[in-house]
Fold Cupin.
Amino acid sequence: MTDAPPKLDYWHVWTDDDGVTHQTRCALTDFKLKSMGGKAAPQWNDHLLTSEASILFCVLPVGWIGDWHENPKPQWIVPVSGRWFVETMDGTRVEMGPGEPSFGGDQESKPDPEGRVGHRSGTVGDEPASLMVVQLDPKTWSGVRPGGFK
């Protein structure tokens, strides 16, 4: 096992002061080598938060499009199978597949002249996209900017 802590890249969807959404590539970097408990060997863990959260799994059908909308709550989204995309108001489109996490924090975006708000998302390819979603407390996590998680 290497002594150097790993990093885990993710996309962070966020809203700027003008209400425009963006996507920024970030990394989780605060990994500590520690056992999860019992007789389990040490592993690299980045303990982001202790909070009440909702966890759900979604299956987006082939051809599914979620037109312009905000994430309903600040949420981590991890594709389990298939591929999907997220497009923000600044024109950035990112496609993600299994194991490529993103954080949806585009609450409080404002409609632009074309009526776009938040982001649009949808499936990519000829198979459904299965996602694991961990929704966080909006009072604590709405408005978190890139770099807000280590």
